[in-house]
Amino acid sequence: MKATVIIAHPYPKSFNHAIYHTVCAELASLQVELFNHDLYEENFNPTLTVEELGSDISTDKLVNRYALELQESDYLFFIHPNWWGQPPAILKGYIDRVIRPPHAYDFPPGDTGGGLPIGKLKGKYGIVFNTSNTEEERENNYFHDPLDSIWKQCIFGFCGIEKYYRKMFRIIADSTPEQRKQWLREVSDVVQDVVNGSQKILQSFAEHTTNPGL
Ligand SMILES: Cc1cc2nc3c(=O)[nH]c(=O)nc-3n(C[C@H](O)[C@H](O)[C@H](O)COP(=O)(O)O)c2cc1C
Questions:
Q1: Ligand 1 in contact with 172 (CB < 6 A)?
Q2: Does domain 2-204 have CATH number 3.40.50.360?
Q3: How far, in Å, from the CA of 108 to the mean position of ligand 1?
Q4: CA neighbor of 175 nearest in space, from 141, 132, 205, 136
């Protein structure tokens, strides 16, 4: 089995990095082959080019490599903080440039992009770990947890992924070292459950968000 693991956080000693290292170590211990990338460390350029906008072809080696790895992976892990209800800009750029046709989704012949997409990442598992400084009640009822629909419907669902897990760790600013250790144990448990176990934690959402005929 193979996994793509993407972290988007500029500070290598952040709690997000602790999550990232825990995910990678746990996957490695489960004999899962890793394609792990720290987007800041790899100096990923998040800006979609004119050429990429007009075609499915990129001349950026990193973009092409990440896209092929996504296709090869069974598990897709994304780790990032909540920044304005969105992923950090560098990860937004990864989404724009890497999660693209023809690797991640496409449209049926004759469809210029206005119809239902064909998900090309069907059968894979999408797992997201987020951090934030907002109480759950306020996040859900006032902000409406935008990261959940961004990942679940806008990205994974669009690409045909039907098995999804997301956890928001909060409130990082007030957390104790003991709390953070406990959270990292939870991260390990999730990875084990996804790879090994009953996968009972995963949400299934076969909502036919993609083109059902293909
Ligand atoms: C640019 C920026 C925007 C942020 N926006 C939000 C937000 O919308 N909601 C929130 O709860 N926290 C927000 N935060 C706080 C971060 O989510 C928080 O610092 C981070 O999750 C802590 O994890 P870390 O210790 O790994 O950095 C923001 C922080 C930054 C730097």
A1: yes
A2: yes
A3: 39
A4: 132
- Concatenate the DSSP letters of all residues of 2-37 into one string: EEEEEE--S-TTSHHHHHHHHHHHHHHHTT-EEEEE
| Per-residue model confidence as pLDDT tens digits over 72-125 | 999 999 999 999 999 999 999 999 999 999 999 999 999 988 999 999 999 999
Q: Where are the beta strands (DSSP E) in the chain?
A: 2-7, 33-38, 75-81, 105-106, 118-119, 125-131, 163-169, 203-204
Place of tokens 């006032």: 142
Reported pTM? 0.95
The CA 11 to ligand 1 mean position distance, Å, reads 12
Q: Is 134 in the pocket of ligand 1 (CB under 6 A)?
A: yes
Mutational test site, ligand 1, from 84, 167, 183, max ligand atoms within 8 Å of CB: 84
Q: Report domain extents, the chain.
A: 2-204
